[in-house]
Structures are given as structure tokens and as C-alpha cells.
Design brief:
Blueprint lengths: L10 E3 L2 E3 L1 H13 L2 H7 L4 H14 L5 E4 L7 E4 L1 H20 L1 H9 L3
Antiparallel strand pairs: 1-2, 3-4
Helix pairs in contact: 1-2, 1-4, 2-3
């Protein structure tokens, strides 16, 4: 579960949003090799996870996630080189923004009841 005070970067790239949820989903796919396993880690249905991946795949010039066909060993999914680049770029932006705004975020938190 995410800390409610954690800084969360959400950016709009044309008609698609990229935020902590999609980044966590991409990271989960990278770590598990599975869209369904990554979705389960986030308490998300396979259908919803697949919809989010499809949004990203359709937005960029090439897919960010490649699916592997099933069979004896089962299917799976993996981040493409583009997907790894999207995830690492988003994480870097997230860290830079949080660092740049740390003082102001702390101030806003101090103003709460």
C-alpha cells in the first residue's frame, strides 16, 4: 500500500496518463514476467492491467510490453527496450521532481490539520 504522503508524479502525454500506477504495473511485469501476476500484486484484475498496458502500447511508436504466447511453459510478458526506457525515465523524473519540491511539500504537509 502506498504511503498517502508519498509524492506521486502524474503526467499527461497527449491522450494518455503516465503515473505511479502504470509505472508500478510496468515494474511488476519486469519483475514477474507476467501481466496477471503484476496485476495481482496491485489487487488489479487481469483485464484492467491489460487495458492499461494496451493504452501505453498504442500511445508509443512501438509496444512497451511484449506478450509471449502460451504453451507447455505458459505465456508471459516482458518489457521491451522501449518499455524499460519509459519506466526508467518516469522513475528518474519522479525522483527529480520529489527532490526539487521536497521543501515545499514538507511545508504543505505542515499546514495540514
Amino acid at each position: 500500500m502506498r504511503d498517502p504522503d508519498e509524492f506521486q508524479l502524474r503526467i499527461r502525454l497527449g491522450d494518455v496518463m503516465l503515473g505511479p500506477g502504470k509505472a508500478d504495473l510496468l515494474q511488476g511485469i519486469r519483475e514477474t514476467g507476467s501481466i496477471s501476476a503484476a496485476g495481482r500484486r496491485m489487487s488489479m484484475s487481469y483485464r484492467r492491467a491489460w487495458q492499461l498496458i494496451e493504452q501505453l502500447n498504442l500511445h508509443f511508436d512501438a509496444p512497451v510490453v511484449a506478450t509471449l504466447t502460451g504453451g507447455r511453459g505458459g505465456g508471459g510478458a516482458e518489457l521491451t527496450a522501449l518499455g524499460k526506457d519509459v519506466l526508467s525515465t518516469y522513475r528518474r523524473m519522479q525522483q527529480r521532481c520529489a527532490a526539487a519540491m521536497a521543501d515545499d511539500l514538507a511545508h504543505l504537509r505542515d499546514l495540514r490539520k
